[in-house]
From TrEMBL:
It comes from Cupriavidus pampae. This is Leucine efflux protein. Its main location: membrane. It is a multi-pass membrane protein. It is found in: Cell membrane. Keywords: Cell membrane, Membrane, Transmembrane, Transmembrane helix.
């Protein structure tokens, strides 16, 4: 079908990749733990939107061109690393805001669940995924294995495979976000515990950024 080969193997591989914790999963869990289910779900949808960009780029050859350019690769790598570090620092610094009238640190305010707040969470998840060169390399190396090089509709094959992966990934990430947010809802009733939890998650984001910056080509 459209030059796709070994489709069941592709589906199985995507499933195993989804259940194996990675940077996207860590980011989504971090958002869910720190800000609740809605934040985690919107972050998950943002990550999926980022995967749509990568799928389109792979289908039309843009990913290969980007991976072949050391300068472009480095720009995306360092931009993505800086963005993750910025998110982590902002999460940590907000926990040091003084409480009302007592000068003590408190946990940040609950996640903004307004349309604007949810849109911001979506865009953060989107940028985290789009600015990750590891995802670019993954699409470039993984997808061609399941497309017949002699097929006349390779772009369509890449798009179909991308759609399958995005649907599976969205379902899994949304489930992870929902479960992580549900298990930590009671934490919001303990401000000091949530304060330290936010600092741990922020530190994890900084670690992910540092790891991304050190990623070799």
């Amino acid at each position: 079908m459209l030059g796709i080969t070994d489709l069941p193997l592709f589906v199985g591989a995507v499933f195993l990749l989804n259940v194996t914790p990675g940077p996207d999963t860590a980011y989504i869990v971090g958002r869910s733990v720190a800000q609740g289910r809605a934040a985690g779900v919107m972050s998950s949808l943002g990550v999926s939107a980022g995967c749509c960009v990568h799928a389109l780029a792979t289908a039309f050859g843009l990913t290969a061109l980007l991976a072949a350019s050391p300068i472009a690769f480095s720009i995306i790598k360092y931009a993505g690393a800086a963005y993750l570090v910025w998110l982590g620092l902002r999460m940590i610094l907000t926990t040091f805001r003084p409480g009302p009238g007592d000068g003590t640190a408190t946990s940040p305010a609950p996640a903004d669940t307004s349309t604007r707040g949810l849109r911001a969470l979506f865009m953060q998840g989107f940028l985290t995924n789009v600015l990750n060169p590891k995802v670019i390399l993954f699409f470039l190396s993984f997808f061609p294995q399941f497309v017949d090089p002699k097929a006349g509709h390779q772009a369509a094959a890449f798009l179909v495979l991308g759609a399958i992966m995005i649907v599976m990934t969205t379902i899994w990430n949304t489930l992870v976000a929902w479960l992580a947010g549900t298990l930590t809802r009671r934490v919001s009733q303990a401000p000091r515990l949530k304060c330290w939890l936010d600092r741990v998650v922020g530190t994890a984001f900084i670690g992910l950024g540092a790891r991304l910056a050190l990623l070799p080509r």
